[in-house]
Amino acid sequence: MTITAPTAPEAVHVGADELPWADIGGGNKLRLLQIREKEGLWIVENIFQKGFDVQTHKHTGPVWGYTVSGAWKYKEYDYVNRAGSFLYEPAGSVHTLECIEDDTQVWFHMYGVNLNLDEEGNVASVSDGAGTLAAYTAMCEAQGLGTPNVVIGD
Ligand SMILES: [Fe+2]
To answer: How many whole angstroms separate alpha carbon 152 and alpha carbon 128?
Structure first.
């Protein structure tokens, strides 16, 4: 039996300095590593400063988070994510991110969308991969970082 090499997909490598960090305000940063819109996949990396909050949100799909440096938590829980922490967020989970140390770097691998909730629990807005790609690209271009070479698939 022969395995035909031309049909084998190739791995895609992105070096640490090959995707720019877009400034999202207050020294907080974002980069979008990959999006596969039909699968609902989007993978982002953030650098947050102490005091940065992410609006309370509900995930429609599962999320995996890995913390590279610093410290952050969800206001609803006592545990703290630090360097090396692994976090699994099931579909349907609801929480409010709070950064508690400067230069906190964290990576999120998400499926589905984030339903951003107001204080009454109503959906105020939706965050997804396609919207994040558009926003990230626009911020990079506006900030003189060029057009980012995000890994984009179906
Ligand atoms: Fe989340």
So the answer is: 14
Please state, in angstroms and rounded to a whole number, the distance separating the CA atoms of residues 47 and 106. Answer: 7
The pTM (predicted TM-score) of the whole model is: 0.93
35-77, pLDDT tens digit by residue? 999 999 999 999 999 999 999 999 999 999 999 999 999 999 9
Expressed in angstroms and rounded, the spacing between residue 104 Cα and the centre of ligand 1 is 16
Ligand 1 centroid distance, CA of 111 (Å): 11
With respect to residue 39, please indicate whether it lies within any of the assigned structural domains: yes
The reply to whether 30 falls in a domain is yes
What domain count does the chain have?
A: 1
Average pLDDT over residues 21-29: 97
State the distance from the centre of ligand 1 to the C-alpha of 6, rounded, in angstroms. 39
Tokens of 124: 């105020």
The domain spanning residue 101 has which CATH number?
2.60.120.10
